[in-house]
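sry for the spam today, last one i promise. struct tokens for design, 160 residues
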């Protein structure tokens, strides 16, 4: 079994961790054992965010776009990797890093404008531009905020 988190330790280039596991996966523990890396999920993804990741295993890359929760990746998978569509797709949530333009006192609300659930709200502060706050209860982890961020300061990852 391949532990993907340990493989990243030796990667030459650390990319912005704006990737998450596929939605509706039954368990990450046996994913690498059951996934055949056939690529059908990548081909079926309507927003083309499912890419071949580390070791050829599929992963979601939010720098390419957002997840619309269409369930097509699960529908085409020949392996028993996915839960039913009526279940919660994942526990992924967005987080904003300190490199955010607003946190550097530069006006930017790109992420909030892209958030369909209005999980990203901006709070006025004295002497600063409005600061972003994520309501994790409202965040679906769709990743719509990631690609539009001009400073690549938003990550979507699974809660541990």
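last one done:
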């Amino acid at each position: 079994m391949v532990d993907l988190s340990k493989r990243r330790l030796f990667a030459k280039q650390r990319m912005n961790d704006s990737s998450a596991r596929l939605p509706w996966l039954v368990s990450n523990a046996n994913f690498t054992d059951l996934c055949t890396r056939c690529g059908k999920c990548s081909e079926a993804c309507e927003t083309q965010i499912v890419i071949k990741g580390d070791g050829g295993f599929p992963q979601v890359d939010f720098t390419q776009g957002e997840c619309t929760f269409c369930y097509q990746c699960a529908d085409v998978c020949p392996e028993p990797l996915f839960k039913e569509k009526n279940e919660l797709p994942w526990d992924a949530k967005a987080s904003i890093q300190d490199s955010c333009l607003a946190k550097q006192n530069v006006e930017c609300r790109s992420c909030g404008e892209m958030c369909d659930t209005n999980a990203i709200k901006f709070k006025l502060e004295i002497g600063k531009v409005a600061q972003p706050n994520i309501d994790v209860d409202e965040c679906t982890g769709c990743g719509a905020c990631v690609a539009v961020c001009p400073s690549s300061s938003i990550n979507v990852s699974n809660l541990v």
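Strands lie at 19-20, 50-52, 58-61, 92-96, 120-123, 131-134, 154-158. ok im logging off now
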